[in-house]
Protein backbone atom coordinates (compact mmCIF):
# COMPACT_ATOMS: atom_id res chain seq x y z
CA UNK A 1 0.00 0.00 0.00
CA UNK A 2 2.87 2.33 0.72
CA UNK A 3 4.09 1.97 -2.90
CA UNK A 4 0.59 2.53 -4.29
CA UNK A 5 0.14 5.62 -2.20
CA UNK A 6 3.45 6.99 -3.43
CA UNK A 7 2.49 6.42 -7.07
CA UNK A 8 -0.97 7.89 -6.50
CA UNK A 9 0.28 11.06 -4.72
CA UNK A 10 3.18 11.73 -7.06
CA UNK A 11 1.03 12.60 -10.15
CA UNK A 12 -1.04 15.03 -8.04
CA UNK A 13 2.10 16.71 -6.77
CA UNK A 14 3.38 16.92 -10.32
CA UNK A 15 0.15 18.51 -11.60
CA UNK A 16 0.08 20.96 -8.71
CA UNK A 17 3.68 21.89 -9.37
CA UNK A 18 3.02 22.48 -13.08
CA UNK A 19 -0.03 24.63 -12.30
CA UNK A 20 2.01 26.66 -9.86
CA UNK A 21 4.79 27.13 -12.39
CA UNK A 22 2.28 28.18 -15.09
CA UNK A 23 0.63 30.67 -12.73
CA UNK A 24 3.99 32.14 -11.72
CA UNK A 25 5.15 32.39 -15.34
CA UNK A 26 1.91 34.09 -16.40
CA UNK A 27 2.07 36.63 -13.54
CA UNK A 28 5.70 37.40 -14.37
CA UNK A 29 4.86 37.90 -18.04
CA UNK A 30 2.01 40.28 -17.21
CA UNK A 31 4.26 42.19 -14.84
CA UNK A 32 6.96 42.47 -17.50
CA UNK A 33 4.40 43.68 -20.07
CA UNK A 34 3.18 46.39 -17.70
CA UNK A 35 6.74 47.41 -16.87
CA UNK A 36 7.61 47.51 -20.56
CA UNK A 37 4.57 49.67 -21.34
CA UNK A 38 5.39 52.02 -18.46
CA UNK A 39 8.99 52.19 -19.64
CA UNK A 40 7.94 53.09 -23.18
CA UNK A 41 5.58 55.77 -21.88
CA UNK A 42 8.33 57.21 -19.66
CA UNK A 43 10.74 57.09 -22.57
CA UNK A 44 8.25 58.94 -24.78
CA UNK A 45 7.79 61.64 -22.13
CA UNK A 46 11.56 61.98 -21.74
CA UNK A 47 12.00 62.26 -25.48
CA UNK A 48 9.78 65.35 -25.58
CA UNK A 49 11.75 68.54 -26.08
CA UNK A 50 12.49 70.29 -22.80
CA UNK A 51 11.06 73.52 -24.16
CA UNK A 52 7.65 71.91 -24.63
CA UNK A 53 7.60 70.65 -21.05
CA UNK A 54 8.58 74.06 -19.67
CA UNK A 55 6.09 75.82 -21.89
CA UNK A 56 3.17 74.29 -19.97
CA UNK A 57 4.42 75.77 -16.69
CA UNK A 58 4.66 79.41 -17.75
CA UNK A 59 2.47 82.15 -19.18
CA UNK A 60 4.29 83.54 -22.19
CA UNK A 61 3.69 87.16 -23.01
CA UNK A 62 1.13 87.78 -25.72
CA UNK A 63 2.49 91.25 -26.45
CA UNK A 64 4.22 91.65 -29.81
CA UNK A 65 7.89 92.31 -29.12
CA UNK A 66 9.35 95.36 -30.85
CA UNK A 67 13.05 94.53 -31.21
CA UNK A 68 13.67 98.00 -32.58
CA UNK A 69 12.31 99.43 -29.33
CA UNK A 70 14.61 97.19 -27.27
CA UNK A 71 17.60 98.29 -29.32
CA UNK A 72 16.60 101.93 -29.00
CA UNK A 73 16.48 101.86 -25.22
CA UNK A 74 19.49 99.66 -24.65
CA UNK A 75 22.51 101.31 -23.03
CA UNK A 76 25.18 101.80 -25.69
CA UNK A 77 27.97 102.03 -23.09
CA UNK A 78 27.26 98.68 -21.43
CA UNK A 79 25.77 95.36 -22.65
CA UNK A 80 22.42 95.90 -20.93
CA UNK A 81 18.99 95.30 -22.47
CA UNK A 82 15.69 96.22 -20.78
CA UNK A 83 13.65 93.12 -19.90
CA UNK A 84 9.91 92.85 -20.72
CA UNK A 85 9.96 96.49 -21.87
CA UNK A 86 6.95 96.20 -24.19
CA UNK A 87 4.94 94.49 -21.46
CA UNK A 88 5.79 97.19 -18.91
CA UNK A 89 4.70 99.90 -21.35
CA UNK A 90 1.43 98.05 -21.94
CA UNK A 91 0.85 97.73 -18.18
CA UNK A 92 0.94 101.53 -17.72
CA UNK A 93 -0.56 102.45 -21.11
CA UNK A 94 -4.23 102.82 -20.01
CA UNK A 95 -3.35 105.23 -17.18
CA UNK A 96 -3.12 109.01 -17.22
CA UNK A 97 0.38 108.79 -15.79
CA UNK A 98 0.91 112.23 -14.28
CA UNK A 99 3.38 110.79 -11.75
CA UNK A 100 5.71 107.83 -12.04
CA UNK A 101 8.35 106.27 -9.75
CA UNK A 102 11.07 103.88 -10.89
CA UNK A 103 12.33 102.22 -7.70
CA UNK A 104 15.26 100.48 -9.41
CA UNK A 105 16.58 103.03 -11.87
CA UNK A 106 19.44 100.93 -13.23
CA UNK A 107 20.41 102.07 -16.72
CA UNK A 108 17.14 104.07 -16.96
CA UNK A 109 15.94 102.10 -19.97
CA UNK A 110 12.43 101.43 -18.64
CA UNK A 111 12.17 104.96 -17.24
CA UNK A 112 13.16 106.59 -20.53
CA UNK A 113 10.58 104.57 -22.45
CA UNK A 114 7.76 105.29 -19.96
CA UNK A 115 8.54 109.02 -19.87
CA UNK A 116 8.49 109.29 -23.66
CA UNK A 117 5.29 107.23 -23.85
CA UNK A 118 3.37 109.52 -21.47
CA UNK A 119 3.42 113.18 -22.48
CA UNK A 120 1.00 113.99 -19.66
CA UNK A 121 3.63 113.15 -17.03
CA UNK A 122 4.38 115.97 -14.57
CA UNK A 123 6.48 114.25 -11.90
CA UNK A 124 9.16 111.61 -12.35
CA UNK A 125 11.16 110.04 -9.49
CA UNK A 126 14.04 107.62 -10.05
CA UNK A 127 15.70 105.69 -7.22
CA UNK A 128 18.59 103.25 -6.98
CA UNK A 129 20.70 101.96 -4.13
CA UNK A 130 23.68 101.42 -6.46
CA UNK A 131 25.75 104.63 -6.93
CA UNK A 132 27.31 103.32 -10.16
CA UNK A 133 23.90 102.69 -11.74
CA UNK A 134 22.66 106.04 -10.44
CA UNK A 135 25.51 107.92 -12.12
CA UNK A 136 25.02 106.06 -15.42
CA UNK A 137 21.30 106.83 -15.43
CA UNK A 138 21.53 110.57 -14.77
CA UNK A 139 22.58 111.65 -18.31
CA UNK A 140 19.85 109.54 -19.91
CA UNK A 141 17.13 110.96 -17.66
CA UNK A 142 18.37 114.52 -18.21
CA UNK A 143 18.36 113.98 -21.97
CA UNK A 144 14.78 112.65 -21.97
CA UNK A 145 13.43 115.29 -19.60
CA UNK A 146 15.20 118.32 -21.15
CA UNK A 147 12.67 118.68 -23.97
CA UNK A 148 9.74 118.50 -21.55
CA UNK A 149 10.77 121.26 -19.13
CA UNK A 150 9.25 123.00 -17.24
CA UNK A 151 6.10 120.88 -17.40
CA UNK A 152 7.90 117.69 -16.32
CA UNK A 153 9.98 117.75 -13.14
CA UNK A 154 12.41 114.90 -12.54
CA UNK A 155 14.04 113.81 -9.29
CA UNK A 156 16.69 111.12 -8.84
CA UNK A 157 17.69 109.76 -5.46
CA UNK A 158 20.43 107.40 -4.28
CA UNK A 159 18.33 105.32 -1.88
CA UNK A 160 16.85 101.91 -1.20
CA UNK A 161 13.35 101.37 -2.57
CA UNK A 162 12.03 100.51 0.88
CA UNK A 163 12.37 104.26 1.69
CA UNK A 164 9.99 105.36 -1.07
CA UNK A 165 7.48 106.92 1.35
CA UNK A 166 10.12 109.13 2.98
CA UNK A 167 11.45 110.28 -0.38
CA UNK A 168 8.03 111.13 -1.79
CA UNK A 169 7.06 112.93 1.43
CA UNK A 170 10.24 115.01 1.22
CA UNK A 171 9.56 115.96 -2.41
CA UNK A 172 5.95 116.88 -1.60
CA UNK A 173 7.03 119.12 1.26
CA UNK A 174 9.99 120.71 -0.52
CA UNK A 175 8.23 121.60 -3.77
CA UNK A 176 4.62 121.55 -2.56
CA UNK A 177 3.55 119.02 -5.18
CA UNK A 178 -0.11 118.15 -4.90
CA UNK A 179 0.42 115.44 -7.53
CA UNK A 180 2.76 113.55 -5.20
CA UNK A 181 0.79 114.20 -1.99
CA UNK A 182 -2.31 112.58 -3.45
CA UNK A 183 -0.39 109.47 -4.51
CA UNK A 184 1.41 108.37 -7.68
CA UNK A 185 -0.24 106.70 -10.66
CA UNK A 186 2.57 104.30 -11.51
CA UNK A 187 5.40 102.54 -9.65
CA UNK A 188 7.87 100.14 -11.22
CA UNK A 189 10.37 97.72 -9.62
CA UNK A 190 12.93 95.67 -11.57
CA UNK A 191 14.58 93.23 -9.14
CA UNK A 192 17.76 91.21 -9.38
CA UNK A 193 21.27 91.99 -10.54
CA UNK A 194 21.65 93.89 -13.81
CA UNK A 195 24.05 92.90 -16.57
CA UNK A 196 26.31 95.86 -15.82
CA UNK A 197 26.71 94.67 -12.22
CA UNK A 198 27.39 91.04 -13.15
CA UNK A 199 29.87 91.97 -15.88
CA UNK A 200 31.87 94.19 -13.50
CA UNK A 201 34.20 91.73 -11.77
CA UNK A 202 35.17 94.30 -9.10
CA UNK A 203 31.67 94.06 -7.63
CA UNK A 204 32.04 90.35 -6.85
CA UNK A 205 28.75 89.23 -8.45
CA UNK A 206 30.30 87.24 -11.32
CA UNK A 207 30.86 83.50 -11.10
CA UNK A 208 33.15 83.37 -14.14
CA UNK A 209 35.28 86.49 -13.54
CA UNK A 210 37.58 86.77 -10.54
CA UNK A 211 37.09 89.68 -8.16
CA UNK A 212 36.82 90.61 -4.49
CA UNK A 213 34.07 88.90 -2.47
CA UNK A 214 32.07 92.09 -1.98
CA UNK A 215 28.51 91.82 -3.44
CA UNK A 216 27.27 95.01 -1.78
CA UNK A 217 24.67 96.90 -3.81
CA UNK A 218 25.27 100.18 -1.96
CA UNK A 219 28.26 101.70 -0.16
CA UNK A 220 26.25 102.20 3.03
CA UNK A 221 26.18 98.44 3.62
CA UNK A 222 28.90 97.33 6.03
CA UNK A 223 28.60 93.56 5.51
CA UNK A 224 30.37 91.88 2.58
CA UNK A 225 30.28 88.33 1.23
CA UNK A 226 33.79 87.75 2.58
CA UNK A 227 32.61 88.70 6.07
CA UNK A 228 29.88 86.06 5.91
CA UNK A 229 32.17 83.30 4.63
CA UNK A 230 34.97 84.05 7.09
CA UNK A 231 33.12 84.85 10.31
CA UNK A 232 29.56 83.51 10.34
CA UNK A 233 28.83 80.28 12.27
CA UNK A 234 28.61 77.08 10.25
CA UNK A 235 24.86 76.64 10.82
CA UNK A 236 24.17 80.21 9.65
CA UNK A 237 26.13 79.67 6.44
CA UNK A 238 24.16 76.48 5.86
CA UNK A 239 20.90 78.31 6.51
CA UNK A 240 21.47 80.96 3.83
CA UNK A 241 22.66 78.34 1.33
CA UNK A 242 19.48 76.35 1.97
CA UNK A 243 16.96 79.19 2.28
CA UNK A 244 18.38 81.89 -0.02
CA UNK A 245 20.22 79.74 -2.56
CA UNK A 246 17.82 76.77 -2.48
CA UNK A 247 20.93 74.59 -2.71
CA UNK A 248 20.29 70.87 -2.07
CA UNK A 249 23.95 70.18 -1.22
CA UNK A 250 24.08 72.87 1.48
CA UNK A 251 25.24 70.60 4.34
CA UNK A 252 28.33 69.44 2.46
CA UNK A 253 29.12 72.96 1.22
CA UNK A 254 28.84 74.57 4.65
CA UNK A 255 31.34 72.06 6.06
CA UNK A 256 33.72 72.62 3.15
CA UNK A 257 33.56 76.41 3.57
CA UNK A 258 34.21 76.30 7.33
CA UNK A 259 37.05 73.83 6.86
CA UNK A 260 38.70 75.87 4.10
CA UNK A 261 38.52 79.22 5.89
CA UNK A 262 40.45 77.84 8.88
CA UNK A 263 43.57 77.61 6.68
CA UNK A 264 42.98 80.33 4.08
CA UNK A 265 40.31 83.02 4.65
CA UNK A 266 38.18 83.87 1.62
CA UNK A 267 39.10 87.08 -0.19
CA UNK A 268 38.20 86.60 -3.87
CA UNK A 269 35.51 84.87 -5.91
CA UNK A 270 38.06 82.52 -7.49
CA UNK A 271 38.69 80.86 -4.10
CA UNK A 272 34.98 80.20 -3.60
CA UNK A 273 34.48 78.93 -7.16
CA UNK A 274 37.39 76.48 -6.81
CA UNK A 275 35.89 75.12 -3.60
CA UNK A 276 32.52 74.66 -5.32
CA UNK A 277 34.17 72.89 -8.26
CA UNK A 278 35.87 70.42 -5.91
CA UNK A 279 32.62 69.88 -3.99
CA UNK A 280 30.54 69.19 -7.11
CA UNK A 281 30.34 65.75 -8.69
CA UNK A 282 32.47 65.41 -11.82
CA UNK A 283 29.61 63.60 -13.53
CA UNK A 284 27.65 66.87 -13.60
CA UNK A 285 30.29 68.56 -15.74
CA UNK A 286 30.81 72.29 -16.23
CA UNK A 287 27.10 73.14 -16.10
CA UNK A 288 26.79 71.32 -12.76
CA UNK A 289 29.30 73.41 -10.85
CA UNK A 290 28.21 76.65 -12.57
CA UNK A 291 24.61 76.10 -11.45
CA UNK A 292 25.76 75.33 -7.91
CA UNK A 293 28.02 78.39 -7.88
CA UNK A 294 25.17 80.56 -9.16
CA UNK A 295 22.96 79.41 -6.28
CA UNK A 296 25.74 80.00 -3.72
CA UNK A 297 26.46 83.49 -5.09
CA UNK A 298 22.74 84.27 -5.03
CA UNK A 299 22.49 83.22 -1.38
CA UNK A 300 25.43 85.41 -0.39
CA UNK A 301 24.14 88.42 -2.35
CA UNK A 302 20.69 88.18 -0.75
CA UNK A 303 22.21 87.91 2.74
CA UNK A 304 24.64 90.80 2.20
CA UNK A 305 21.95 93.19 0.97
CA UNK A 306 19.04 91.89 3.08
CA UNK A 307 17.11 91.70 -0.19
CA UNK A 308 14.06 89.66 0.75
CA UNK A 309 13.15 91.68 3.84
CA UNK A 310 13.71 94.95 1.96
CA UNK A 311 11.52 93.71 -0.89
CA UNK A 312 8.57 92.93 1.34
CA UNK A 313 8.87 96.29 3.11
CA UNK A 314 9.10 98.06 -0.25
CA UNK A 315 5.97 96.38 -1.64
CA UNK A 316 3.84 97.53 1.30
CA UNK A 317 5.29 101.04 1.11
CA UNK A 318 4.70 101.24 -2.65
CA UNK A 319 1.07 100.19 -2.23
CA UNK A 320 0.56 102.94 0.35
CA UNK A 321 2.04 105.48 -2.10
CA UNK A 322 -0.27 104.54 -5.01
CA UNK A 323 -3.05 106.89 -5.98
CA UNK A 324 -6.57 105.46 -6.48
CA UNK A 325 -6.45 103.50 -9.74
CA UNK A 326 -2.65 103.46 -9.69
CA UNK A 327 -0.58 100.43 -10.69
CA UNK A 328 2.48 98.69 -9.26
CA UNK A 329 4.49 96.53 -11.69
CA UNK A 330 7.25 94.22 -10.44
CA UNK A 331 9.75 92.12 -12.41
CA UNK A 332 11.43 89.31 -10.44
CA UNK A 333 14.12 86.88 -11.52
CA UNK A 334 14.09 83.95 -9.11
CA UNK A 335 11.51 81.96 -7.18
CA UNK A 336 12.24 83.52 -3.77
CA UNK A 337 11.50 87.03 -5.05
CA UNK A 338 8.48 85.95 -7.07
CA UNK A 339 7.02 84.07 -4.10
CA UNK A 340 7.24 87.18 -1.92
CA UNK A 341 5.67 89.35 -4.63
CA UNK A 342 2.85 86.87 -5.17
CA UNK A 343 2.01 86.41 -1.48
CA UNK A 344 2.32 90.12 -0.68
CA UNK A 345 0.06 91.07 -3.61
CA UNK A 346 -2.57 88.61 -2.36
CA UNK A 347 -2.31 90.02 1.13
CA UNK A 348 -2.57 93.60 -0.15
CA UNK A 349 -5.72 93.10 -2.23
CA UNK A 350 -7.33 91.19 0.61
CA UNK A 351 -6.23 93.15 3.70
CA UNK A 352 -4.99 96.46 2.30
CA UNK A 353 -1.75 96.44 4.27
CA UNK A 354 0.64 94.59 6.51
CA UNK A 355 -0.80 92.12 9.00
CA UNK A 356 0.43 91.36 12.50
CA UNK A 357 3.03 88.55 12.40
CA UNK A 358 0.82 86.32 14.58
CA UNK A 359 -2.14 86.70 12.24
CA UNK A 360 -0.35 86.62 8.89
CA UNK A 361 0.12 82.85 8.54
CA UNK A 362 -3.44 82.02 9.64
CA UNK A 363 -5.05 84.68 7.47
CA UNK A 364 -3.02 83.84 4.37
CA UNK A 365 -4.63 80.41 4.10
CA UNK A 366 -8.06 82.07 3.98
CA UNK A 367 -7.29 84.62 1.29
CA UNK A 368 -9.17 82.71 -1.39
CA UNK A 369 -12.36 83.00 0.62
CA UNK A 370 -12.26 86.79 0.23
CA UNK A 371 -10.98 87.17 -3.33
CA UNK A 372 -12.44 86.07 -6.62
CA UNK A 373 -10.86 85.07 -9.90
CA UNK A 374 -12.56 86.53 -12.94
CA UNK A 375 -12.10 86.42 -16.67
CA UNK A 376 -11.09 89.64 -18.37
CA UNK A 377 -13.81 91.68 -20.02
CA UNK A 378 -13.42 93.49 -23.33
CA UNK A 379 -11.46 96.44 -21.99
CA UNK A 380 -8.54 96.50 -24.39
CA UNK A 381 -6.20 94.58 -22.08
CA UNK A 382 -6.92 91.02 -23.11
CA UNK A 383 -3.26 90.07 -22.61
CA UNK A 384 -4.03 90.03 -18.88
CA UNK A 385 -5.92 86.74 -19.28
CA UNK A 386 -7.02 86.25 -15.67
CA UNK A 387 -7.31 88.66 -12.77
CA UNK A 388 -7.76 88.32 -9.04
CA UNK A 389 -10.14 90.81 -7.40
CA UNK A 390 -9.97 91.67 -3.71
CA UNK A 391 -11.51 94.26 -1.44
CA UNK A 392 -8.50 96.59 -1.65
CA UNK A 393 -7.28 96.03 -5.19
CA UNK A 394 -6.91 93.82 -8.24
CA UNK A 395 -4.04 91.58 -9.28
CA UNK A 396 -3.97 91.91 -13.06
CA UNK A 397 -1.69 88.90 -13.45
CA UNK A 398 -3.09 85.77 -11.85
CA UNK A 399 0.00 84.06 -13.26
CA UNK A 400 3.19 86.01 -13.92
CA UNK A 401 3.92 87.16 -17.45
CA UNK A 402 7.18 85.76 -18.82
CA UNK A 403 9.14 86.88 -21.92
CA UNK A 404 8.03 85.71 -25.34
CA UNK A 405 10.20 83.24 -27.23
CA UNK A 406 11.17 86.04 -29.60
CA UNK A 407 12.51 88.23 -26.78
CA UNK A 408 14.18 85.27 -25.07
CA UNK A 409 16.01 84.45 -28.29
CA UNK A 410 17.07 88.08 -28.68
CA UNK A 411 18.12 88.43 -25.01
CA UNK A 412 18.79 85.03 -23.32
CA UNK A 413 19.41 86.72 -19.96
CA UNK A 414 15.71 87.57 -19.70
CA UNK A 415 14.53 83.94 -19.65
CA UNK A 416 13.83 83.80 -15.90
CA UNK A 417 12.04 87.18 -15.68
CA UNK A 418 8.45 87.30 -14.33
CA UNK A 419 6.14 90.31 -14.37
CA UNK A 420 3.30 90.80 -11.88
CA UNK A 421 1.01 93.84 -11.84
CA UNK A 422 -1.32 95.10 -9.11
CA UNK A 423 -3.89 97.93 -9.31
CA UNK A 424 -5.55 99.91 -6.55
CA UNK A 425 -9.32 100.51 -6.79
CA UNK A 426 -10.33 103.73 -8.55
CA UNK A 427 -12.26 104.77 -5.45
CA UNK A 428 -10.64 104.45 -1.99
CA UNK A 429 -12.07 101.75 0.28
Given the helix and strand composition, which structural class is it? alpha/beta
Query: How many strands in all?
Result: 11
Strand content: 5-15%
Q: How would the global form be characterised? A: globular
**Biggest sheet descriptor:** 9 strands, mixed
| Gyration radius over CA | 29 Å
How helix-rich are the residues, as a percent range? 40-55%
Q: How far apart, in Å, are the first and last alpha carbons? A: 102 Å
Oligomer: single chain
Write down the overall mean pLDDT. 81
Strand order of the largest sheet: 4-3-2-5-6-11-9-8-7
Number of helices: 19
What report would you give on this structure?
By secondary structure, this protein is of the alpha/beta class. 52% of the residues lie in helices and 13% in strands. It contains 19 helices and 11 strands. The protein has helices at residues 2-47, 50-55, 67-72, 85-92, 109-117, 131-146, 164-175, 178-181, 195-198, 225-231, 234-243, 250-263, 269-279, 285-305, 307-321, 335-351, 357-364, 367-370, 405-410, and strands at 59-60, 99-102, 123-128, 153-158, 184-190, 322-332, 372-375, 386-390, 393-395, 401-402, 418-423. It has a 9-stranded mixed beta sheet, with helices on both faces. It has a two-stranded parallel sheet with strand order 1-10. Helix 12 packs across helix 13 (269-279). The radius of gyration is 29 Å and the shape is globular. The termini are far apart.
